[in-house]
Design a protein that fits this description.
The protein has a single domain, classed as Alpha-Beta Barrel (TIM Barrel). The chain is of the alpha/beta class and 309 residues long. Strands 1, 2, 5, 6, 7, 8, 9, 10 and 11 form a nine-stranded parallel β-sheet that branches. Strands 3-4 form a two-stranded antiparallel sheet. The two termini are 22 Å apart. The longest helix is centred in the last third of the chain and has 20 residues, at 289-308. The protein has helices at residues 20-23, 64-77, 112-120, 150-162, 173-182, 210-218, 234-249, 265-268, 275-284, 289-308; strands spanning 2-7, 31-39, 45-47, 54-56, 82-83, 96-102, 122-126, 165-167, 187-189, 222-225, 254-256. 50% of the residues are buried. Helix 1 (20-23) links the parallel strand 1 and strand 2. The chain has ten helices and eleven strands.
Length: 309
């Protein structure tokens, strides 16, 4: 059984129907669950000149991010794929989506919107994306807040209380320090890789330091290996990054966060067909079946259970 803890498999763009062709590959790919992200700041970001990074190009209008999130969620709900609301809903024989939101830009100062999203079925929320929002600083822009804000801290507490998985992907290291100081439940860094000075793209701004990774691990959380920016190494690079994470933080804290079908994944992992190759590669390097199961699904499921308890 495989769980991908961060994807845009149902829909990448701001509008449109779910891509049922992509979702239809989940069963053959042995993917029991795909976490699908509603991109809150999608209308305000674009691919920068050169095509190698994403940038903000305008501020959101009032209510725009909330409307965008709701549009995505409706798309997921109408995708024809079952929505999993609880850990027991995830079964190897019946592929399901877990609804998530990428970026708390939709809050606009209203924490009750987190409860509203939980009631709708959202089970994972990322504090930040490519806009520096009211919760804290991001990895890809100069710091504005100096880390997690007071409002961001309240958002963390509300997510912990509501049973929403907290995801710190895209957050600056100082923002994660703030999260680590107050979080009472495990949290994720759903899609990133460890920094690798001297290696091509090894210091990508979205890669994390070992200190950053340890804060996730110390919470009991999981880091998902990421393919989207591995332009030279491609799919084999994702496997290599998985093992770098395993070696650095331990088998209990690593998962799969492909971010498909963005970036490199658009050609290397445009759907779920190659996911079984990940399990095969792990086995080929000598991991036991128990260890393979942890990386492929068990670690993320452990966090889901702890957060929903």
């Amino acid at each position: 059984m495989i769980i991908d803890m961060h994807t845009h498999a149902a829909r990448v763009s701001r509008t449109g129907d779910a891509d049922r062709g992509v979702l239809g590959t989940m069963r053959a790919g042995r993917v029991a669950a795909a976490v699908v992200a509603a991109i809150a700041d999608m209308p305000m970001i674009r691919l920068a000149a050169g095509g190698d990074r994403i940038e903000k190009f305008r501020d959101p209008y009032p209510g725009e991010c909330l409307d965008t999130v709701n549009g995505y969620l409706t798309c997921f709900e109408q995708s024809g794929t079952r929505i999993a609301l609880e850990p027991a809903d995830i079964r190897p024989d019946s592929p399901a989506l877990v609804m998530a939101i990428e970026g708390c830009d939709f809050l606009e100062g209203d924490l009750d919107r987190l409860d509203m999203m939980e009631e709708r079925g959202v089970r994972s929320v990322q504090l930040t994306h490519y806009l520096v929002n009211e919760t804290g600083d991001i990895q890809t822009a100069p710091p504005v807040h100096g880390g997690l804000t007071a409002f961001g801290a309240e958002a963390v507490r509300r997510m912990n209380a509501a049973g929403i998985i907290l995801d710190v992907a895209h957050c600056s290291q100082d923002t994660v320090k703030g999260v680590a100081a107050i979080a009472t439940k495990p949290f994720l860094c759903s899609h990133s890789n460890l920094k690798e000075p001297g290696h091509n793209d090894g210091e990508h701004p979205r890669f994390i330091s070992l200190d950053y990774a340890r804060m996730v691990v110390d919470s009991g959380g999981v880091i998902g290996a990421w393919i989207s920016v591995l332009w030279e190494e491609k799919f084999p690079g994702m496997i290599r990054q998985l093992f770098r994470l395993i070696d650095a933080v331990g088998i209990d804290h690593v998962g799969i966060g492909s971010d498909l079908p963005t970036g490199v994944a658009s050609t290397e992992m445009p759907d779920f067909s190659r996911h079984p190759e990940i399990a095969t590669a792990l086995q080929g390097r000598g991991l036991t079946q128990e260890e393979v199961d942890k990386v492929c699904s068990g670690n993320w499921l452990r966090v889901f259970r702890a957060v929903r308890a």
